[in-house]
Specification:
Length: 70
Amino acid sequence: MRGYLAPALRKTQSEQQIRFSGLARGRRVKLAEAAKTSLLKADQWARGDEVDGSTAEALVAALGTLKVKK
């Protein structure tokens, strides 16, 4: 059995990333456009993958401007 000496690594998500991944696709597209990035990069960020720091900050800022739909 290979790798039994090393612990399994898991990606941890912040509250913003969990909140972003719970949104509908259309809302995620709008937030990604507001952050000037692609939906692919935004979804990678939401999963906890490596993304540029400026992209992550822009997505957090765009998520902060999101308001509850009435």
